[in-house]
Amino acid sequence: MAEIAVLGFGVVGSGTVEVLDKNSAKVAKNAGQNIRVKYILDIRDFSDSPFHSLFVNDFETIVNDPDISVVVEVIGGVGVALEYTQRCLEAGKSVVTSNKELVAAHGYSLLKLAREKGVNYLFEASVGGGIPIMRPLVQCMAANQISEIFGILNGTTNYILTEMEKNGAEFEVALKDAQLKGYAEADPTADVEGHDACRKICILASLAFGKHVYPDLVSTEGIRSVTKDDKFFASELGYKIKLLGRARVVGDKLYAYVASHLIDKEQLLSGVEGVMNGVVVRGNAVGDVILCGAGAGKLPTASAVVADIIDAVKHLYARKWIGWEDGDPALLADPAQLETAWYIRTDAPKAKIEREFGDVIFAGESNGTIAFKTMMLSGKKINDILARGIKPLSIFRILV
Ligand code: HSE
Q: Which residues of 313-343 are buried (b: 16+ CB within 10 A; e: fewer)?
């Protein structure tokens, strides 16, 4: 029997314990042995929980217990979660986590520490919630050169954008609705400003391209600038607006960024609505692989955490495949160099737009503003044109 500990009894921690309990026979069959939660660490009072006898509030009990082989870190953040993860790995315990902030910021050093100690650091649940993405990317697509990964990586913003589309709501109204339904947090900054999606694309890019991509080097825009009018005009042009994390290799450079994009309504990814996530991985043998499913939530995220627990238990004395080298700032290039088509909404006169841009496709006019789609232009080139007196009220890339 393998004995494990769970650090943190929030949404994901309680979901993990619930799935281990509910599916115990299946989990044991897959792991080759029973898995028993010996401790749950949380400073809050859970005396009403059916698992109340497992609670401890002293981390030392866990890290010093030689019977604990796998620790699940679902505390979140980079403070105490970093310290506890380091100490568990140093103590020769494998660690499983859904903590994307920690993996994106410290993945390289934690994976290195795990390698030195001959244990595993696994984080399938950190990207796309319950969607299997790490193993498909690293194992099933191992024969491919990956040229690009992009996707809808944040459920909260996808819900807001979907509501704006369906109900013609403005951003603030859709955000309030997401908060009322429990999708968006009281402080929605990490989601709506794109930081959460940034952490996730950094993890995917690190895995796919083999070097740690640090979030502070990745250009990140959120969805606050998307208006009801933009949704309308984008739809007139045949597109939906989605927040995408993208990482793309061109030559020896990696372009990574997070921004709102227009996606053709015919593309499969545009059908990923509400709190669902979707990821496209482009391999040079297989072509495009699209994975989609529940990107957040208690049981979907626990599904991925428990799969990693099973894997860690099965590989107690063997290292798994996962890992990457340290980051190299010289690898990352400015995404403004990439060419794409653009959507622009402005109050500039139509004649001036035609004069400065040449060929464009107009979406329509409303309330003194006009929206249009450009031909392929780099971010740098478009800024040069806009500087000639066309003030963009909104400007988004179009996924081509
Ligand atoms: N806040 C995240 C989201 C939770 O909305 O997708 C899952 O990482």
A: beebeebbebbbeebeeebbbebeebebbbb
Mean pLDDT confidence for 244-262: 96
Instruction: Kindly give the distance from the C-alpha atom of residue 182 to the centroid of ligand 1, in angstroms, as a whole number.
Output: 11
Q: Give the number of other CB atoms < 10 A from CB of residue 293.
A: 17
Alpha helices in the chain (DSSP H): 11-22, 24-31, 59-63, 80-90, 100-117, 134-135, 155-167, 171-180, 189-192, 195-209, 228-237, 298-314, 350-357, 379-386
Determine whether 304 is exposed, middle or buried from the number of CB atoms within 10 Å of its CB (0-12, 13-18, 19+). Answer: buried
In angstroms, rounded to a whole number, what is the distance separating the alpha carbons of residues 290 and 313?
29
The tens digit of pLDDT for each residue in 342-363 reads 999 999 999 999 999 999 999 9
Assign 185 a pLDDT band (cuts: 50, 70, 90). confident
Beta bridge partners of 379: none
Gap from CA of 362 to ligand 1 centroid (Å): 35
Of the candidate ranges 61-65, 86-90, 312-316, 375-379, the one whose mean pLDDT is the lowest:
312-316
CA 387 to ligand 1 centroid distance, Å: 36
Share of the chain above pLDDT 90, in %: 94
Residue 127 alpha carbon to ligand 1 centre in Å: 9
Position 329 scores a pLDDT of 87
**How does DSSP classify residue 125?**
G
Pocket test for ligand 1, best of 196, 244, 277 (most atoms within 8 A of CB): 196
* pLDDT given for residue 47 in this prediction: 92
Helical segments of 168-220, H only = 171-180, 189-192, 195-209
pTM of the model: 0.96
**Which atom of ligand 1 is nearest to 183's Cα?**
5
Instruction: Check pLDDT > 80 for residue 320.
Output: no
200 is known as an active-site residue: yes
| Ligand 1, pocket residues at CB < 6 Å | 129, 154-156, 191, 196, 295-296
Mutation test residue for ligand 1: of 102, 181, 189, 191, the one with most atoms within 8 Å of CB: 191
